[in-house]
Design brief:
Layout: H1 3-6, H2 13-35, E1 63-64, E2 67-68, E3 81-87, H3 92-104, E4 110-117, H4 121-131, E5 137-141, H5 145-150, E6 157-161, E7 167-172, H6 177-194
Parallel strand pairs: 3-4, 4-5
Antiparallel strand pairs: 1-2, 3-6, 6-7
Length: 196
């Protein structure tokens, strides 16, 4: 036997580290892609399509000026620019955006519609009593089916619906002092100009 036949093959330590390097590179790539996006800019397949034709019952016991606040009738989504806000009393960001919705409700060119998501009626009424009810219509989505039809990722979410009943814009996450002016009101103005 010659010496060349008995010696072990040369080691290649970099080959052993190759799977670890590939994994680390992929992890960094995924982290960068996930962290670089604005979650409020998640695209919706419903943009440009008619709003879901889901009728929702009224929030029991909710009144405004002595009259019961109606539930959501899909026919009310046509004829006027509508802001549809999906909210719940247990949703922490919903508490933060409530005063901004109350301010937005002062714009009489719009109708504000609330979809109360998987909430106890007593808690929902207390929530609206605490901040003031900005909604002319409040539909109750007790089992979450309507939220699925609207393509809701999680509460709160806000939709701008054009006069013809088409979803024009979707804001994922809470309305904030920053995005209400720069994003939401800009989209509302577009919707108002489109129908005039």
């Amino acid at each position: 036997m010659t010496e060349a036949q008995t010696s072990p093959p040369p080691r290649r330590p970099w080959l052993m580290a190759l799977p670890l390097l590939v994994f680390a590179a992929l992890a960094v790539l995924f982290w960068l892609r996930l962290g670089s996006g604005d979650p409020s800019r998640i695209p919706s397949a419903l943009i440009g399509r008619p709003a879901p034709q889901t009728a929702l019952p009224a929030l029991e016991g909710l009144t405004s000026n002595g009259a019961a606040v109606p539930g959501l009738d899909p026919a009310t989504l046509k004829g006027k620019v509508s802001i549809v806000n999906v909210w719940a009393s247990w949703c922490v960001p919903c508490h933060d955006e409530a005063p901004l919705l109350t301010e937005l409700a002062k714009d009489k060119r719009l109708q504000l519609i609330g979809i109360n998501y998987k909430d106890a009626p007593d808690n929902a009424r207390r929530f609206l009593g605490r901040y003031g009810n900005p909604f002319g219509i409040v539909g109750v989505d007790g089992n979450g089916r309507a939220a699925i039809e609207w393509g809701v990722y999680g509460v709160p979410e806000t939709f701008v619906i054009g006069r013809e009943g088409t979803i024009l814009f979707k804001l994922v996450g809470p309305i904030t002092p920053d995005n209400i002016e720069a994003v939401l009101k800009a989209e509302i103005d577009k919707a108002l100009k489109a129908g005039s």
